Amino acid sequence: MSSEDSFISISLILFATAKSSGSENIILTKNCCLQILNCRKLNTMLVKYFVLLFTLVSVSAAVGQSQEDEIRELQRIANEYKERAIKAEALAARFEKEAVHARYLYLANEIALYSLQVQDKELAGLLAVQAHQFNLNYSGYPSNSKIYAGLFNAIKRYRSEQNFSSIHEAKSLVSDSVSIFSIGKDGELFRWTKNNKEWIGEALNKVQVNGAIQAVTLNNQGNLIAIATSDVVQSNTANIDLVSIGGQAKRLETLKSKIERIIFSPDGNGLYALCRSGQLIIHSDFNITREVIKPIERILSMDINADGTKLAGLSFSGDLVVWNTSDYSSVVHKIFSKSNEVNSIAFLPGSKDKIFAASDSALKLIDVNNGQVLRNLLGNPSKITQIQFSHSGTLLATLSVDSKIRVWNLKNIRQWPFVIEESLIEGFIFSPDDTQIMSVKDYKVHSWFLNTRDMANELCGLIKRNLNVEEWNTLISSDLPYVRTCPNLPVKNEE
Questions:
Q1: Residue 131 phi, psi (nearest 5)
Q2: Residue 420 CB neighbours (<10 A)
Q3: Are 420 and 411 in contact (CB under 8 A)?
Q4: Separation CA 52–CA 55 (nearest Å)
Q5: DSSP class per residue in 253-284
Q6: What are the C-alpha distances in Å from 249 to residues 65, 204, 225?
Q7: Helix H or strand E encompassing 54
Q8: Alpha carbons 110 and 131: distance in angstroms, whole number
Q9: Long-range residue pairs from 436-443, CB within 8 A, at least 24 positions apart, any chain
Q10: Where are the beta strands (DSSP E) in 51-197?
Q11: How far apart are CA 245 and CA 224, in angstroms?
Q12: What is the chain's Cα-based Rg?
């Protein structure tokens, strides 16, 4: 006899006892009901509820209205256990769902890592895409570094990097939220706009270049580019040219030193240049150029805040120096404990007082007002040479001496960054729509998707077939239902 049958029988006995003996046994009946509720052998809380309810109806019929208070109490207890039963079943369903999600997300990470070891590029691509699908379908972190690594390495096996600058040899890139501008080693300036999936180039200007390009920057308004170049004719001389987009180039200044960095003021009506090996900062309003800061210690990198009121520089010894641009008075904050020839800084987009600073492999978010370190970012083991933000301000990317670009999602800054691994990268930018990273290598432009969904779609356009059932059972799991990784592709050996 089942547990449910047993307790229904007990209820019938209680009913008979109460009816034959009268109200004096109502207390006994109540106690028996409580024993029913607390029985561990009953399968579900809902069965307890219905058995108890049956008993209550039986008792009510037997004793009439004389014991209404006792019956109401039993009804209250029954309703309480009903509510507990519903909550318990909902909780069990939630735990079961979470367990399923956890398993799929664990598999996603394991499959992505395994795809890096697989020699067959088609199989590696299929595994990388399937890992992405599990991560996507079961609410995994969209910028998961393992998922990105699997997709990135699979794509690298299939294609040579996209080169949209084949009509000229690109040396440097800058971009705004609409276009990309490339400057060739011969001084040619091109503007690139995206038409569907194709980048269309338009020649704009040509700047006289007698040597190497040292620094390039675009103003916030997207109508001026400043280019610093060395002059091989005149040794130890550098030129700053101001190029109006669609207009003429103007020789702004010739300096007897190398130029390390150029930045426009936020209003676009002037610029600062770091030169003379970090021992001089000049300012130009495009008509008059003057020396404004002679740092006590060499400054290796600099940036300006969102409203142009503060100029910040990172020194060789690891000090953050902040100048007020109204009178160039300064404050110094000791940030890094050791000297380093490689460092970089960049204000958060739109921020007046929050700046990221990097020295060696350390990357910190700092309040420039008091020098307080607000956060240390983890995940960068190599010396950082460049910090760049996406146009939306939601992504932070760094370039290191190991030629790896690491990208953090600032909305989930505690998550590990995903990595774009290249060799001999000279610099990088975000595409205007923030969907790609563009890097320069060997005078060619290389582009890489940032969104894993875009990467998975690209791979499904390169792969020729799906996993078959045997591969699925071996490489994914034999107890999970088979699905086509790329829905539009055939299954291997499918008739």
A1: -60, -45
A2: 24
A3: no
A4: 5
A5: EEESS-EEEEEE-TTSS-EEEEEGGGTEEEEE
A6: 102, 10, 9
A7: helix 45-63
A8: 8
A9: 437/397, 437/405, 437/407, 438/173, 438/175, 438/180, 439/405, 440/170, 440/171, 440/172, 440/173, 441/161, 443/165, 443/169, 443/170, 443/171, 443/184, 443/185
A10: 170-175, 180-184, 188-195
A11: 6
A12: 35
- pTM for this prediction: 0.78
| DSSP line for 4-22 | HHHHHHHHHHHHHHHHHH-
Return the structure tokens found at 72.
């109401």
**Which residues, at least 6 apart from 214, have a Cβ–Cβ distance to it below 8 Å?**
228, 229, 230, 238, 258, 259, 260
Query: In whole angstroms, what is the distance from residue 442 CA to residue 434 CA?
Result: 23
3-state secondary structure (DSSP) of residue 26? helix
Please give the structure tokens belonging to residue 460: 């499904």
Collapsed DSSP state (helix, strand, coil) of residue 357:
strand
Cα 17 to the center of its chain, rounded Å: 70
Q: Tell me the C-alpha distance between 347 and 370, whole Å.
A: 15
Is beta strand 343-347 parallel, antiparallel or unpaired with respect to 354-359? antiparallel
Rounded CA separation 188/205 (Å): 6
The per-residue pLDDT string of the chain (495 residues; one tens digit each, 9 = 90 and over) reads 544 445 445 444 444 454 444 444 545 555 555 555 455 444 455 455 555 555 555 555 555 545 677 777 777 877 887 788 888 888 888 888 888 889 999 999 999 999 999 999 999 999 999 999 999 999 999 999 999 999 999 998 887 545 555 566 788 889 888 889 888 877 888 888 888 777 888 888 777 776 788 889 999 888 899 988 887 667 678 888 888 887 777 888 788 788 989 999 999 999 999 998 899 999 999 999 999 999 999 999 999 999 999 999 999 999 999 999 999 999 999 998 877 777 899 999 999 999 999 988 889 999 999 999 999 988 888 889 999 999 999 999 999 988 899 999 998 888 889 999 877 787 899 999 999 998 887 777 888 899 999 999 999 999 999 999 999 999 999 999 999 999 999 986 654
Check the CA dihedral 434-439-443-446 and report its sign.
Answer: negative
